[in-house]
Amino acid sequence: MSGTVHLETPEPGIARVVLDQPARLNAIGQAMWDRLGAILAELDREDSLRCVILTGAGERAFSVGADITEFEAIRSTVEKAKAYAKRTHAALDALRALRHPVVAAIEGLCVGGGLELAANADLRVCGAGSRFGIPIKKLGLVVAYGELAPLVRLVGKSNALRILLEGDLLGAEEALRIGLVNRVVPDGTVMAEAMATARRIAEGAPLVARWHKKFVNRLMDPRPLSPEEEAESYLCFGTEDFAEGTRAFLEKRPPVFKGR
User: Fold this and answer.
1) Do 124 and 103 touch, CB atoms closer than 8 A?
2) For 41-89, how does the pLDDT look when each residue is reduced to its tens digit (9 = 90+)?
3) What is each CA distance from 95 to 83, 89, 102, 249, in whole angstroms?
4) 57 with 6: CB under 8 angstroms?
C-alpha cells in the first residue's frame, strides 16, 4: 500500500499536514510529493489560516525521505532524475514560499528528503530521541542546489558539510546546538509542543506573521532592498489589525485580529 499526505484542521486557524506512510517510516513516494505540493498551494490561498504544522504519522519517523524502491522506475538515469527533481522541488518550493508560518513537528528519524523538508519549515520542534542526517553518500547521490540551500542557510557551511560528508546521524541535542532545531522536548510530547507553538503564533496578527516571514527570508538574499521593498515594512500602519492591536493594548484586553 502506497503512502499519502493528508490535511487536518485540529483547531480553527491551524492546519496540520501529515506525511502518512508509517509502515515505511513515512518514505515519500512521487505521488506523495505531488500531493504535498497541492495541499501547500491550497493552504497558501487560505486567508483565515494562521499557522501550519508539518509532521509524519506515527512515532518512529518524521520522514526518511525519498522512497528508494521507486528509483529504478523514476530516478535511474540523468533525464529521469531531472524529471523527478522537477516534481519534488515543486513541493519544496511550495513549502518555502508558503506565506503562513510552518512548524515542523519531528518524532524519530528525520533524514534525507525528510530533513530537506524540515529545513524549509520556519520552526522545528523535535523529540529527545529524534535523529537527523542525510546519509546519501552510501547511495552515490548528491543533494541538488535547490535542496541544499535551505540547509546551508540554517546550519552554515561547516555543519552542512559535516552532515553530508560524514553521513552519520545527529542526535537531538546536537541538532539543537548547531541550530538545526529550535526546541527539544520529551518524546511523546512533540505534537503538544507544536500545537502550543502554533497557538502562540496564531494569537498574533496574521498579516504581521506573514510579513515577518517574508522579510526574514528576503534578508537572506544579498541583493540590496528596493525602495518598494523598504516601503512595504510600513504598510502595517494602514491595517485594521494595527488599529485593533493598539486599542486592545490601551484598553488592557486581548486583541481580536481579522487579518485586514
Assistant:
1) yes
2) 999 999 999 999 999 999 999 999 888 888 888 888 898 888 888 889 9
3) 19, 10, 8, 34
4) no
State the number of CA atoms in the 13 A half-sphere of 48 facing the CB: 5
pTM of the predicted model as reported, rounded to 2 decimal places: 0.93
Q: Which fold has domain 4-202?
A: 2-enoyl-CoA Hydratase; Chain A, domain 1 (3.90.226)
**Distance separating alpha carbons of residues 193 and 228, to the nearest angstrom:** 38
Show me where the domains of the chain are located. 4-202, 205-250
The string of pLDDT tens digits covering residues 197-228 is 999 999 999 999 999 999 999 999 999 999 99
**CB distance 103 to 125 below 8 Å:** yes
Q: Which residues contact 234 (CB under 8 A, 6 or more apart)?
A: none
3-state SS, residue 123: strand
Distance between CA atoms of 89 and 144, rounded to whole angstroms? 10
| Grid cell listed for 85 | 527533481
Greatest alpha-carbon pair distance for the chain in Å reads 65
DSSP state at residue 98: -
What local confidence, expressed as pLDDT, does residue 84 receive? 85
Mean pLDDT score of the chain: 94
What gap in Å lies between CA 57 and CA 247, rounded to an integer?
Answer: 42
